[in-house]
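Human: You know discrete backbone vocabularies at least as well as I do. Show me how you would write down a chain together with its backbone fold. No explanation is needed for now; the record alone will do.

Assistant:
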Amino acid sequence: MPLLTFTDRGIYCERADVYIDPWKPVDRALLTHGHADHSRWGNKYYLTTRTAAPVINYRLGDIKIETVEFGEVKTINGVKFSFHPAGHIIGSAQIRVEYKGEIWVASGDYKLEDDGLSEAYEPIKCQHFITESTFGLPVYRWVPQEEVFADINDWWRANKEDGKVSVITAYALGKAQRLLEGLDPEIGTIYTHGAIENTNEVIRAQGIKLNDTVRVTKDVNKKDYPGNIVMATPGAVGQPWMKKFGQARVGAASGWMTLRGARRRRGADRGFVLSDHCDWPALLEAIALTEANNIYVTHGYTAIFSKHLRGLGLNAVELETEYEGELAEIESKAEPSESAENAGK
């Protein structure tokens, strides 16, 4: 039997009796990161990285959680587990699993571009590599993030000159903090939706410095918003919460902005192509760096990407899982504070 198997509860290591990012409740769960499709409530015991744990605790509530440092080896019934940077969001990890020379890596979600905020991606050599394919089509090719941030800041400046409020959407964990660090605070004030600010507070409490922000509340004078920028969750667009900003201009930052029509579907005037996942070339590069011959594709364009990998001579298979990649992060259910915020408080 292989060291890891794929079950109806998640990725399972029978010898250690643990699951990686399970989507149904289990006794022991090893989590790659805190996004909702990878960290779910109901497990008896959690293990994750020290920097991922605070947000997971915030999102899941009263849970029994243990942490490890990146690179630290934890041995369970002879199986060696270690967590290595995935570069996706703060604290995100790939989980390396080794037993008697057999090595697997479950990558969770990952990106190769160093955003300066998340721990930078670390390639891990293995025989078996479990990968996403959220953007596993040749059409998805990112430009350097510096160029995207320059475009966003230019858009904000132009809106300011027109006396408009700029609203840019981002999921509360990961993309929001990355955008926050890319915004130029010299242009004006950065306001935040409550769900985003709650996450910012958890991250700041870890000693991680972020640009200054002001929470959107009913106490802020509506006249203070024009010329400034508001970071909102995608779910807030079109809700009563938005009325306080008047005729705002809405931007959306996502890898999906590559596709025609995606901006319109997300209620945005302007789309910026920025993703916390790999594009097509980076996916192929990451797989090559592992030197693995056996590739397991868990979510995204699984059929097309697996077929391409087989054409390269790799043993690639597609798997049915409940991971959703950036779609889950953009269209996720409300954060604990978000329902009240969207109600227009």
